[in-house]
Each structure stands twice: as C-alpha cells, then as structure tokens.
Amino acid sequence: MTRIAICAPATPIKRKLAQRVTALAAEGYPQLELSFHEQCFVSEGHFAGSDAIRLAALLECANDPGFDAVWFAKGGYGSNRIARAALAGIDEHAARKSYLGYSDCGTLLGALYRAGIGQPAHAPMPVDLKREGGEAAVRRALDWLAGDPSGKEESVGGEPVVAFNLMTLAMLVGTEFMPPLAGHVVMIEEVAEHLYAVDRMMFHVTQHLHGIAGIRLGEVSKVPENDRPFGADAVEIVQDWCARSGIPYLGRAQIGHSADNRIVPFGLVEPAGAA
Amino acid sequence: MTRIAICAPATPIKRKLAQRVTALAAEGYPQLELSFHEQCFVSEGHFAGSDAIRLAALLECANDPGFDAVWFAKGGYGSNRIARAALAGIDEHAARKSYLGYSDCGTLLGALYRAGIGQPAHAPMPVDLKREGGEAAVRRALDWLAGDPSGKEESVGGEPVVAFNLMTLAMLVGTEFMPPLAGHVVMIEEVAEHLYAVDRMMFHVTQHLHGIAGIRLGEVSKVPENDRPFGADAVEIVQDWCARSGIPYLGRAQIGHSADNRIVPFGLVEPAGAA
C-alpha cells in the first residue's frame, strides 16, 4: 500500500473535489490510499489558512512516517511564504517521500530539491480534476504514485531536469530556495500572463540561469488580449532570450496548466520502468 | 539654455502629446529647450520601434554633446531589451547628463546608476500630461530640469536613495544591470497588480536587497479586484516582508503612477537648493 498525504500550501480546494478524487483513486488504484488533510478546505483571505496553519499541515504530512508521498492539492499563491519554516521543520521521515505538484507549489519543489529532500516532481494536482479532461491528468499523477512512469514528459531522461511555472521560477531565482541548476534542462510553462510579461520574465530568468543545459518551453496558455499585438509569439520570445543569453533552446515540452500536463521528476531520473 | 533630448526606450507616445508638452515648456520655461526624437512616435508591435531603432535614438540623445539631459517619454515595457547595448554604446558625453523617467524605464536608470553614468532620477515623464492633474507632474519634471529642486520627494536627503516600480525592480534584481544598493533607501511603487502579486514580488526583492538602509512604500494604485480579498493591504504586505527579511520599513514615499509622483535623484543627493 502506498499512502499519500494531501495538503494545500497555497490556496484551498472544496471538500467535494477531494471526495471525487478519493473516489477516482478508490475505483482504479487499490494499492493507493489518499488522505486529504483537513487544512485543504480551510479558507483565510487569499490562502488555505494562515501561514501557521498551512505550515503545520505540510509538516504533519511530510514528517509522518506513515505516508510515502505528499501531494499538493492546488497552487494559486502562497507556498513561498512557508518555505523557510518548512525546510527548518521537516525531519528524516520527510526525506523518504515523493512531493508532487506544480504552479505556485514549484517554490516548495525547488526548495526541497535544493535541500536534497525526497523526490520532488512537477505533476498534476487534485485541483486539475476540474479541468476539461482533468480526470486523465489526475490519473496520470495517480499512475505515477502507483509506480507507473508512463506519464513522464517524454523528453525526460539522460540529463537532470526541472520544470517550473515561469512566474514561480522568476520569483524563485536568486533566493535562498533556488536550487543550483547547472547542467539541467529547465522546462517552463505559463498561464494567464501577457506576452510582454513573458518577455520580461525571460529577461529576468535567463540572467539567473547561467550554465544550464537548455530551456524547453511548455504551454503558454490563456494569454490575455493586450491593447496591441506583442509582435512575437511565445516560442519566438523564448528563442530570442535563449539566443541573447547563450542558453540552448531545446524545443517544446508537454507541461502546462492543462489536462495534458505531464510529469517531470526533478533531477537525474533513471530509465523509464525503474521509477 | 538647458537642452533636453526626449526618446522612448519602451513604448511610443503620440505626436500631439509631444506638441502639448513642448507648448507647456515654451510658455513657462524659457531656459529649457525640448527636443522630441522622431523615434518617440514610431510604433512596431508592442514597442516604440524595434530594439535597433529604440537603441539608436537613445544613443543619439545620450551621446550628443548638445544635450544636457535625456528625458524618457513613456514606460510600458521594453527598456531592458536595449540596456546592454546602450551601456556598450554610450560615450563620454553621456556621463555629463541627467536621465529622467520611471516605471519600465527604471531598468535604464538602474543600469546607468550601476555604471556610474550621469545622474539618473525617478521623475514624471511627458506621458504623464495625460493624467488628471498631469500638467503639475510634467511641470515638476520641467522645474527640476530648470534647476528648481522643489519637486523632490520630501524624505530624500542624508542617505543614498533609489526609486523603482516594484515589478521593474523585481525583474532587475540579480541581473547584470542591478546596482549595488547597500546603505540605500529603496522606494517602491506599483500599479495595476493584484495584492498577491505584490506579496510575491516583495518575497522576491527582499531576498535580493540585503544590506539596504530600508524600504519606503509609494502608491500602490489600480489594484485589480480578485475573486477574494487578499487579507492584508499593501502597507501590511511590505511591513511583513521587511520584518521577515530584517529590512527596516521606513514609511511611505510620495511616488507612484499618478500626478503626485515626485522626483528621486538616485544616489546621495546634496541638500535642497544645491541640485
């Protein structure tokens, strides 16, 4: 039996969503046991509870020897606010777990990766069940947790890799939580940002990513309409900043804020089947 | 006679606006001569002309020994894209000039300050004439250019100081253009960003601003409505991140995207009257 603790380091989900994800897992994954922490349903201002409440839940999930993995319920914004205290509070049991999530929760994945704690992975979250085709996304994460690596982003292998939401990465670079990424393939994706903002963030992150193996671009979705066209699309923008900074542009990656979002285990991954 | 060259390193203005600013200056400032570069009116995708066109105009303005100051016409986005080539292309004439602007143009002000070139100053721009009460804002910059320091932000003096739009600063930190700011008072302001984004940027910039004298908060205006209240206002957010990072919070500053935006000459400024 693989036991999975679910908490919400950023923003909350509804109880009904948790029930649907639990039912989906119960149907098809007898080897998995999901445990949604009550904190997932707490709402306080922007967040799924105060920093103290979110931190306590994260530490309970990470430090409990009865769990094998910690699955983040939803992004939004806020996991950076508890990252320092989380790293200070986790114990040796946390080091044996997988950590799954993406978007804002990439801050925690990055911080864990920097600290060498467990196996962080960019992966669909329970909240993705709400998307069109979201059941496939959630199943992809459940498959992964059950030991089936078929949901892995197909370019992964051979080189160490990470995957981040671009805004999350832009706010992570240069901070105490930023992992050293020399030699890594860095996958990025973005949602609901203007193309000029994508351009601005590419300026910023390429200044911070010296020595990486290259950048792969995932989906750039729900771009708001601006008062005028930017004059270049997302691929051209990323290629441009890669060229300006001497970072190899390696092509596309199947990650993003959609049901197609695939799994990217941070670091150097063993060949498929050995996960 | 003080001769002022005006160019647009980011986005364009209309010719009519330039005419109105020229008329305003002609009426009240016989000692000033404004020269709008034709590039101010060029439009190409998001920008006031291609990078090459904007760069060429900036260098013509900065390197022409006939001008005493360079005034940026408008922000928007894009001055970061030409900053490296601008620093490489400016000559000794550029070092004797003042550089005025704010918002996106803060990237250039920061880069010039880092390089020790001229006197960068956060100040109203020609485009501010369009605001309610904008004539006072433009007059404030013209007064400054004419040698009257009365438009200076009132807390300026005694300690070195800089002023930035928060997003511009968030994208500047850690880059090759970021000036060392140890001992500086750092003033920040923001416009049209969600409070969660302000919180996220404060996380980021406070990680990069070790050793500064403190932060002063200007206006945080046109905050979009979110699907739920954030739970803290802009002052509380900035105080929180100052406390978390050990940076003194020094109170408010009268800067921002409004007609009240006052002038902040970068660095250690002489007592009022000596400017």
From TrEMBL, chains A, B:
Residues 4-117 form the LD-carboxypeptidase N-terminal domain. Pfam families: Peptidase_S66, Peptidase_S66C. SUPFAM superfamilies: Class I glutamine amidotransferase-like (SSF52317), LD-carboxypeptidase A C-terminal domain-like (SSF141986). Keywords: Carboxypeptidase, Hydrolase, Protease, Serine protease. Residues 164-267 form the LD-carboxypeptidase C-terminal domain. The keyword Cytoplasm does not apply. The keyword Phosphoprotein does not apply. Belongs to the peptidase S66 family. This is LD-carboxypeptidase. It comes from Qipengyuania benthica.
